[in-house]
Automatic annotation (TrEMBL):
It is a multi-pass membrane protein. Pfam families: Lipid_desat. It is found in: Membrane. Residues 19-48 are annotated as: Disordered. Coiled coil: none annotated. The lineage of its organism: Eukaryota, Viridiplantae, Streptophyta, Embryophyta, Tracheophyta. This is Lipid desaturase domain-containing protein. The chain crosses the membrane at residues 55-73, 85-105, 166-188. Residues 92-261 form the Lipid desaturase domain. Residues 23-40 have a biased composition (Polar residues).
Length: 278
């Protein structure tokens, strides 16, 4: 399951050779270039949306809307409301928890050469280096990878469970939060006065993760606040050191050393540092 797309996938690939990032599980991230030499540019054409990007976002949205519509129609026909609404709420909580687990795994294990996930691992390291860059890619450019994954995972679920409103409630809300979790994450790096008022309101009440909440992930010790949909799980996961315990288990059982044990490194930046005036 993918929670967060490689927001700057194309750009990352292009920058990868320049950065010469080595993210082995046993070594800290190193870079051989100065940050100012590779700072993303707001007019970078690789951050623009293409028609292919828009098609994948559209198909992803279609599968989500079809699932939600099935949940509503099935609820009306069967005169049930509580269970589909409850399953939708569980889907919302699941998306946030899933975003945290996936983000933690991607942040800490593997490197750019890892099969399947390598480009996302690279993209997340890029995001830590240039957090604000997520805000300058265009919408479909940012969401097209997760749109494609949602299309291929939700379509079979819809075909099998379309007549079960409780399942469709969970699938529709969870996949919607997972897909738009990328956008919610981007908004968490936005400037409040430039965000739509409704987004700011949802951030303020905690439905979406807020900039102040997510900022904790981009500050030392760089090993907490991994959840990026609502962030509702972060307090529990951090307070009970759930990921630290998992890291210890993986180290003792498999010898895998998480990247967070090698932090801090100079590649990480706080939001305000070196961000362009936007
Ligand atoms: Zn991260
Ligand atoms: Zn972030």
């Amino acid at each position: 399951m993918s929670i967060q797309s490689p927001h700057l996938t194309t750009s990352v690939r292009r920058h990868r050779d320049d950065h010469n990032i080595h993210c082995a599980t046993t070594t800290p991230i190193k870079t051989n270039v100065t940050p100012s030499a590779t700072s993303p540019k707001t007019d970078d054409p690789s951050l623009k949306s293409t028609w292919s990007h828009r098609v994948w976002v559209a198909t992803g949205c279609t599968t989500i809307l079809a699932s939600l519509a099935s949940a509503v129609v099935g609820s009306v026909n069967e005169h049930i409301w509580i269970k589909p609404i409850l399953s939708g709420f569980i889907g919302y909580l699941f998306a946030d928890l899933g975003s945290g687990v996936y983000h933690w795994a991607i942040d800490n294990y593997g490197d750019a050469s890892t099969p399947v996930f390598g480009f996302q691992i690279d993209a997340f390291q890029y995001h830590h280096k240039w957090p604000w860059a997520i805000t300058i890619s265009e919408f479909a450019n940012r969401l097209h990878v997760i749109g494609r994954i949602i299309t291929f995972t939700v379509t079979p679920l819809y075909l099998i469970f379309h007549d079960q409103p409780v399942v469709m409630g969970f699938v529709g809300v969870a996949s919607g939060c997972i897909m738009f979790g990328v956008q919610i994450h981007a908004w968490a790096h936005g400037t409040k006065r430039k965000l739509p008022w409704i987004v700011v309101a949802l951030q303020d009440v905690g439905v979406f993760i807020s900039p102040s909440h997510h900022a904790a992930h981009h500050q030392p010790p760089y090993s907490n606040s991994y959840c990026i949909v609502s962030g509702v799980w972060n307090r529990f996961l951090d307070e009970y050191k759930v990921f630290e315990a998992l890291e210890m288990v993986l180290f003792l059982k498999l010898g895998l050393r998480p990247r967070s044990w090698s932090e801090p490194n100079s590649d990480r930046r706080k939001e305000a540092e070196e961000s362009p005036v936007m």
